[in-house]
Amino acid sequence: REFQEGLWKDNCEPSALLFVREIPRQRIKDGPKRLAKFMDITVDELLNAEAQELLTGLKSRLYATSKKILNLHCVELSKGSIDPKRKEHAQYLDSICQQFVSQMTTRIRAAVGPLVGGRWRKTWGSTEKDEEDLDWMVEEVRQHSAMATKLSKDLHGRDGLLGKICITLWESTTVHHGPLVVHSAAGMGKTTLLCKLTQEMQCALEARAVLVIRLLAANHPQRPNINNVLHSICLQVCLACGLTPPPLLSVSSHLELRRFFQNMLEDVSRQGKTLLIILDSLEQLADEHQAHKLHWLPTDIPPNVYLLVSMDTTSEAFANMRLKLGAAANLFEVEPLFYDEGEQVMESYLRASQRTLTRVQKDIVLQSFKNTGSPLHLKLILSAAKRWTSFTPSAELVLGASTQEVMSGLLLKLEEKHGKELVSGTLGCIVLARLPPLLWARLKWDLKDQLEERWTEGVTVIAFNSRKLQELPYHLLHAGLWEELRQEVIGSAEWLYCKSRVCGVSSVISDLDQCFKYMNCSETRLVRDALILMKPSLDVLSGHMDQSLFYSELLARLSSLSSTFCAVIGQLCSQCEDWLQMCQIPVLIPKSSFLQQPGGALQHTLTAPHGGVLCLDIDVAVQLLVTGSADGVVAVWSLEDKQLMYALQGPPGAILSVKIIESSTHCLSLAADGSLRRWSLKSGQQLLCIQEAGPAGPAPSSVHLEVSDELLFVYSWTQVGGGRSLMFLKVSLVNSSALQLFLLVSLCLFPDGHFFVTLLEFQQLCFSVVP
């Protein structure tokens, strides 16, 4: 049966290697008993004739059908066995090993592809999923590169700012550094600046350099998920640098993907290659995994690796970036264009459009632009102005004083020309609208400067570049269709499952949170809290979430509330139970709420991929939780958004105690090897370490860290033989720059109440007390 499955099933190309050993002659003295481990014998110690017949038939079929993978060997046994000391037997074993190594090497090379530039073309298996990921990533890279090339042509001026950024990049080549941040108000040309910088760096960097650019606002009809962005970048860099791509776990686990991204940067740096990653418009990232908090963004960039990001100055992402980087931040503001720079942009635009304006019309354009200095504002003005004729009355030369006013004027003119219903209907569902070709052609011509082709998942679509499509909950919520929202979205088990499966449960929780804030509906809050309680298990299952498991857990958490809250929760429980009753496969159907239900004591479960928690410290004022684990990881959590901020790897072994200090900007950790470390809670970096600050060796019964204004006390006690308790006390002097060992004493307590204190540094008894 195993041969049937591995060699002959469906006449497919065999993936096995076949080795057959024949014993040409069997001497009389080598009877069946001696050859029992090579042949089937009966209980009477005779050859099993039926088994021999089946074996002969099997070998005949193998010889006839599997010649390509057959390795046939004939060897005489010595005393019924193989003796490596015999020459012919040693040659036989060497031959098998050489054949196996050679044939396996050939198959592995065929799977990973030929050598290209001194490395294997593929760094992962040639499965269909790998090929799909590769094709998708290559197409995405091509689209972003093409868009960057196109947008870079629109840049005028900014030479000084480009020079400052380039100098900062070169100065950080050989040292660890932080990311570079480009920021400005909306419409000031951050994207165009980064695209121009990409073109400049392609010419300046060496041939082996790897350049990655992602325009997060330009090429996505919807806001991109940070996991998808990081996964795409990791695939591109790994392919370019010959590194192993992220494992399947990293694709679904946000924390693992963050770790892989940071480690990948270190690997590229160690290779000596140059890597430049440019991420534009971070504020456009979706809310999943609290991407705007920027916990995923590394602050310690290794040599030869550069990370350049841009964001809106008024965005939450920029505020978090300034808090994250502090005084060491490399910030570059894109300021408004000057009058003469605007004039250069205007002349270039008119030449490219093969149009011109009168002197009066040019002055009107520049005066309107002068109010904002915004390149986007100027582009919209020129889009309207190029339709003017030289004899257009001055009264009609009306331009908005801001980007919003220009767009409003454009839409009003379109409604006057084409009709309000046509324009509003087309722009409302421009991707799906079916219009008569002639009407669509006329409207498309007038809108051509405001329409753009965008690429997503291999499909090219037309989008209106000033409007973002929102998801169903958003539309129903802001349209005031709250009852429909409750019935069709919040109260639909199928919608909750599908959205969680496709977009992640964090996205559903975010939707329900927004609904609760507007509607103040207690049932919406309870459904949201139920999904929060379910999130740890759903995150583990990720894209492999089974519908029966989702419905079972939802029912097990909400069933006791269904009679009290009939409208939404009762409907949800009924849907889950009906689906489970009709399920074709055996499932367990909850009959009561045996899991923690929402609204109870348990509010949230924090999970992280490291060992069990041994110690913790909480700062309620700033909503921070620090834990120490059995495998040496110090985890820093934000209790406000329930997200893991940092997983700080300490020495191998357990973390015995942690302490948040200095206005919650730093924390201390004491490890089982006796080392004491200070960590920054802003950057996630280790600042200081002193060895032998605590007892090393077997874990003590209790360990404590106590901090005063000037002193840090590290003390522990351990139960020892004879009923004695040993108190081990170290005192360290704390100042703003270092931890310095100040005093080391031990205290030994005896059952009769007396104790003595020893100065351990000099092994000197200080004093003893007898009651």
Automatic annotation (TrEMBL):
Organism superkingdom: Eukaryota
Statement: the UniProt record of this protein carries the keyword Cell division: no
Keywords: WD repeat
Domain NACHT intervals: 181-352
WD repeat boundaries on the chain: 606-647
PANTHER family: NACHT DOMAIN- AND WD REPEAT-CONTAINING PROTEIN 1
Annotated protein name in UniProt: NACHT domain-containing protein
Organism: Xenoophorus captivus
